[in-house]
Structures are given as structure tokens and as C-alpha cells.
Amino acid sequence: MKNYTLKSIVVVFLGYILAPSYQTNVAIVGAGIGGSSVAYYLSELYGDKLDLTVFDSGPVGGRLATTHIAGREYETGGSIIHPANRLMVEHLERCGFKKSKSHEDGPFSMISNGQIVFQASDGFFDKIKSVIRYGLFSLLKLDYFVGNLLENFATIYPKLEAGESFESVAALLDGMSPISKHGDSSHEMLQLTKISTKKKLQELSISEILIDELGMVAAKVNYGQFPDTLHGFVGSVSLAGIQGGLWNVEGGNYKIPKCLLAKSGATFLPASVNSIEYTNGKSNVTYHLLDNPNDPINNEFDIVIIATPLTIDKTILKLRINGEDQSFPGSFQRTLAYIVHGELNSDFGDDPNDNLFFIDKDDVVASVSMLTPVNYDPATDHELPHVFKLFARQELSKEELGKYFSKIEELQLIDWLAYPNYSTFAELASFKLGENLFYVNNIEWAASAMEMSSLAARNIANLVGQSILDNTEKVSNKKPSSQDNNTEL
Question: How far is it, in rounded angstroms, from Cα 28 to Cα 304?
């Protein structure tokens, strides 16, 4: 009787040492924090098993961006990071960068109908004022609610580090939900997406004035929306900022994606991806290089990861899966950031460092804050130019801007679709669009934040690993043919 087992082992061994090694070709569409993070994690986890190509038609960093005004550089895109954001802290450390205190973590004034209704800083007497205005029990309940959310959120990190993966956003939220007394997921984090922030805070018996003021500030400043239009999970993320300690990256937050992309060893192509045609596990990507827009290029990839929003208002990319055109529900919130080098109107006080929050729902302006340069050095920067960022949800005339500034020396307008419009929220969909096709930005419908994109990137890196393992098992489990069995050694 012939020993086919020994023969198979020898054939496989010889094939392994003689055949050229095969790298899985991976395309990543988008070089923002999500795309650069997934490139880094894939490189760290799987090394030279993967050949990574990253496409983006804009600068590396995406919505993490800066501008130059008054001779200095300032954040204009995603600007604040919470101290509990473990993945962003790890990114900072692996890149060797330093933290800079966020300009939004300081004294503030809340304004309604043109009048300052409340002011606070970190002082003891201001804390007493907060207790008198909002009630001790409401403040304690809010603090407990936010603290509990952050504790639950943190439970997802060791699961991802251990290689666990989640196919959908809903499953990921369940993965960070506490376990019930029966040993099942409580679905607590997922349930927050099914109720408005306002309704959730009301259920916690938090005072209406706190919801209408502090809740409005968190929702309006961070997402340009309101407690009754944000679902409870994203509203909770916005409220986490009340705990303080917010930071950004010295030199600009965009440095993180640039660093991660460089560390990944991926090939970066400055290109616009026109279409992705996915059929039976393979994807054809059609794109054109920015310096040659009339010469489309088509390449096949084993795995494609889309790290850019696919709503109709955010992309021209066409996606077809097994012959069917794909559409993605929802839209993004228009946000206008006016970057002003000038002087604040004296009606708002004499401290330019005061953050002004406009809490009326019908006020199109959300906030006015003085900015700190991304390369601020307290040892040498004794006098800084007065540069402010005014957030609004629609365009303002010169006369309207004059209500806020007594003098404008220089003005820039950043008009962008910054984050999802959560009133168009449909569902928490899957990260996995096909067998080897993944979508990072579905995470934004849970909450749009740098940490959330990094979290989705790590999860997708784990999903890709499982996909590679599955494909390897399919090859190794393939039965030898009769021709193989008849081969004599």
C-alpha cells in the first residue's frame, strides 16, 4: 500500500520552497485616519504577506487638516482627542509625537438671545455656580453616565488586541456592552443608538436646563446638531468632553495619518478612484492618477478596504457588487468654519481666550473660540496673534460676521461635510460588504471621531486576517486529484 500521506507532505514541502511567495494585494481607498490606521495595523499584523496600496485624491490626513493664517498654522479639521482614546494615544506614542492642550478645554460662556447666561472655568466658585444652576444630582448623574460609557467602551480594546473581530457596527457595539446577569450581552451600547440623546438624559432624570444648555453645547459644537436629533451613543461621545483633558497633536493632528502611512510601508498613489467592481471575491479598481486624469487605470486586487464615506454627497466613487450598483443611505452635515484673524466684539467680554457657545437652536452659529497654533511653544510664544474659529451651519455675510468681530484683518472659510447628519441615520450596517470587501466608514453612523475610525480600522484588520486564514484553509483542505495520487516518488 502506497503512503500517500508522506508523498503529499513532500510535494507540499517542495512546492513551498520552490514556488515564488505570493503576496495578497490589498487596496485601501482613503488616506485619512481610518485608511492610514488600517494600513498600519495590516502591516504590523501580517507584514510582507500583504502588498498594500493606498489611494487618495487629497492630502494624507483627510478631514484632519490645518491652515496657515497670520503667519502661523492652525487646526481646521478634526481637532480634539479625549484622554480615554487609547488607540489615538498609542498612535501618538508609536510616532513619537507630543500632546498639546486643546483650545476647547478652557473657560467658556453660554449665550442665548445675545446675552451671556452662564460662565464657568475650572475654579472652585464656578463649580459651585454649576451646582446651583444645574443641580448636584443632575451633574452627578451625568458624570456617572459618561464615566460608565467610557468604562464599557474600554472593554473592546483587549478583545481586538486578542484578534477578535466583529462583522457589523452593531456587533462591535454589543462587544463593548456589559454582560447581563444571565451571561448574555446587555446590548446597552447598541440600545443607545435607538433613542435620542435628549430622551436618554430625560430617562436618567437629568434636569431640563442641563440638557438644554450643556447637552446643546456638546451636540451643537461637536456635531452641529441637537440633543433631540443625535442618537444616544453619539450624543454620549460628544458629552464625554465635559470631563476635560482634551488634547491634540503638537504640530497638527494630520501628522498621525502621515506617520502611520509611512510606517505601514504601503505604496501611496495620489489618485482618484472612479469605480470598484466586485465579483466573487475579487475587485477591479479603476482609477486615474491626479497628474494624468484622462488615462484611467484598472487593477485587480484580492482585498479592497474602502476608508472614505460612500454617501452620494461625499463621493463620486461607483461601487458594483456582483453586477448590482450599490447606494448608501444618509447624508453628511454641512459645516462652515470661519478662521478669523482679528478682534472679538467687546459685547462678549474682554477675555479672548473665552470659548463662546451659542445655545439657541435657531442660532446658526455654534461657537467662537480662540485658536492656538499647532506648534505653540509656551517658552517662546509670549504674544500670539488673535485667531478665532467660528463654527456655523450656513454662510454668514460680512455684516453678520461683524456681530462677533470688531476687526477682521484676514478671513478664511473652510466649507466641508464634516460628519454624518444623524437625523438621516438609517441603520448600523456591516463592515463587510463582500467576502474580501470592507468598509471602514460605516462606523461613523455610531459616532464620527478619530478614535472610532481607528477602532474600525483595527477591527477590519482582524477581519482581513480571518479572511486570509479562511482562504489558506480552503487551499490546504483541497483534496488531491487522482493524478496526484498516482505520482511516484
Answer: 6
Cell numbers of 466, please?
480571518
Cα angle value 101/103/105 (rounded, 5°): 75
Q: Is the pLDDT of residue 14 over 80?
A: no
Distances (CA, A) of 121 to 344, 355, 388: 19, 10, 19
As a whole number of angstroms, the distance between CA 384 and CA 207 comes to: 40
8 Å CB contact between 231 and 445 = no
What gap in Å lies between CA 217 and CA 233, rounded to an integer?
16
Supply the pTM of this predicted model: 0.90
Q: Higher model confidence: residue 381 or residue 233? A: 233
| CA-to-CA dists, residue 224 to 86, 158, 348, angstroms | 25, 33, 21
The predicted pLDDT at position 121 comes to 78
The share of the chain scoring above pLDDT 70, in percent, equals 90
Rounded to 10 deg, the angle between the 450-476 and 86-95 helix axes is 80
159 Cα distance to chain centroid: 20
Q: Are 206 and 141 a contacting pair, CB within 8 Å?
A: yes
Q: In angstroms, rounded to a whole number, what is the distance separating the alpha carbons of residues 189 and 191?
A: 5
Reading the block at residue 77, the C-alpha cell is 479639521
Q: What is the pLDDT of residues 473-489, one digit of tens each?
A: 444 444 444 334 333 32
pLDDT digits (tens, 9 = 90+) for 314-329: 999 999 999 999 999 9
Cα separation, 275 vs 316, in Å, equals 8
Contact 296, 288 (CB under 8 A): yes
